[in-house]
Amino acid sequence: MATAFCNSAVKSMPFRCKIENAYCLIAQESDIVKEVIKDFALFTDVSVSPGLRLGVGAYVMIPASFLESPPGVIRRPEITGQLQVKRFEDTSSTRLELQAVLWALTEIRQEPRGSLTIYSDSQCVSGLLKRKPRLLATGFLSKKTNRQLGNASLYRTFYELHDESGFHVVKVAGHSASRAHDTAHRIFSFVDKEARKALKIWLNELAEERAEKNSGPWCVYLLRCSNNSLYIGMTNDLEKRLEKHTLGTGSKFVRSWRPFELVKTIPCKDEGEARRLEYDLKKLPRKKKIEVLELRMGR
Fold it and tell me: Which end of the chain has fewer CB atoms surrounding its CB within 10 Å, N or C?
């Protein structure tokens, strides 16, 4: 009777309430819960910066019954509220896809559940189970070089976890058009967007750290070019900026009228002040620039 009531209650409640109630039920670890929610779906995705070898993995685990809900009733906050994110260093696209799945499987290892299906857009992850017999038989050696595969240790862990839980893997089409979304693709798109967002936040943090570390005092500088014209610019590394002008990479105008002479620098308290001053000075006619800046134009 209790089981029938719980099943009826879960089916009748709105989708946005289902996840919260389902996770509350799981936390109770009761026999009724195990009867109500047996199967789960695990969605994983990554976002990587190949040049920096940095990436973010994201996953969310939900009751598999939620995939029966129409895609239109699934709202992003209900999924992202349960989402987990992790940063990875010294990685690549394929490696990160494996790392994210293994991290997710390890994190949910102790969760009460029946069957588990992994949803991923990774060709590598979705094809690993088919490759299992051959890789185990050959000791994870490459066909071409007969050497150990670069991700062999990750493959071994993947197969160990598969032997332990017997999960299934379903490949989804990444970045498909919204009109083609079924429920699984809609949920996956939320995970994908959150992974991209998390990577962008991380890269912005790193950029700000580098800027703080490398930044010097801001200034506006004036160059007198070989044709006696004035060039106005701004920088927080005057020495480096002048070097670029000398090499012809700092400005097309200065490159055309080298050599040049540095005739004035104006210290500024920050980038914003330097940018405003540069803008105001550039608007002035040449004669007014000379007057305002008290320049002595010998030529």
Answer: N
